[in-house]
Amino acid sequence: QVQLVESGGGxxxxxxxxxxxxxxxxxxxxxxxxxxxxxxxxxxxxxxxCIRDDGSTIYADSVKGRFTISQDNAKNTLYLQMNSLxxxxxxxxxxxxGTSCWQIxxxxxxxxxxxxxxxxxxx
Length: 123
Hints:
The protein has 123 residues and is mainly β. Helix content is 5%, strand content 50%. β7 (67-72) and β8 form a beta hairpin. It is globular and about 40 Å long. The termini are far apart.
């Protein structure tokens, strides 16, 4: 059973940075691609970023140049470094595992997701 546990969310001012972490277990590295999606109150899910097993990455246009996804395979941990945060980045952020980055970033319908961590950015 895949388990994903996020941490690192919080309340910050616009222009600040946060790093989200996701501890993953219950799968082998080659089973799934890992990524993040987010959902703000009253809005649809939005894919944020995905990292493939070769290390290549995909980002939503809204976060390109500001967010960086990475993973530490030795620690089975996924990260999302978020810089230059904006009020519109406010959302619940979910760590996710899927069989393709399309599934995570475009569809925001991964096979597995964590419980989420809240990010609130005030302007």
